[in-house]
Amino acid sequence: MQTVEEARQQQLLNIIDMAGARLRSMFATIVQSAERAAAGHQVEADLRLVGADIVQIHDWMSSQLAEAMSDTPLASASGAAQIVAMGIPEPIEISHVKH
């Protein structure tokens, strides 16, 4: 059985890992948008979606950090699966946006 501090540390590491993956996805979108802009395409919609993604991940991280710092963080043997199941908000697909 994990102590509260171990559970808190595990949940914080999970938050960092998931947020890092999301940020890499956003960076890839920005790079793709830069390439599209260089080819003369409009990328305003792409960048607006990245902005919306940033707000969404900020809100998600805030709620996860509040949970991690609570008296009963979820990152226990039984809570780890719940954290993974909650996941992070799905990234917005720019391929569905008309340019």
Summarize the topology:
Blueprint: H1 4-38, H2 44-68, H3 79-86
Helix pairs in contact: 1-2
Characterization of this structure:
The protein has one domain. It is 69% helix and 0% strand. It has helices spanning 4-38, 44-68, 79-86. It starts with a helix and ends in a 13-residue tail after the last helix.
Find the count of extended strands (DSSP E, 2+ residues): 0
- How much helical structure, as a percent, in the residues? 55-70%
**Portion in beta strands:** under 5%
- Sketch the topology as an H/E string, one letter per element: HHH
Q: Structural class of the helices, strands and pairings?
A: mainly alpha
Low-confidence stretches: none
Distance between the termini: 52 Å
Outline the biggest β-sheet.
none
What is the number of independent domains? 1
User: pLDDT average, as an integer?
Assistant: 78
Individual helix count: 3
Principal-axes shape call: elongated
The Rg value, from CA coordinates, equals: 17 Å
In summary, what is this structure?
With 99 residues, the protein is mainly alpha-helical. It has 3 helices and no strands.
Which key phrases capture this entry?
99 residues; mainly alpha; 3 helices; 69% helix; elongated
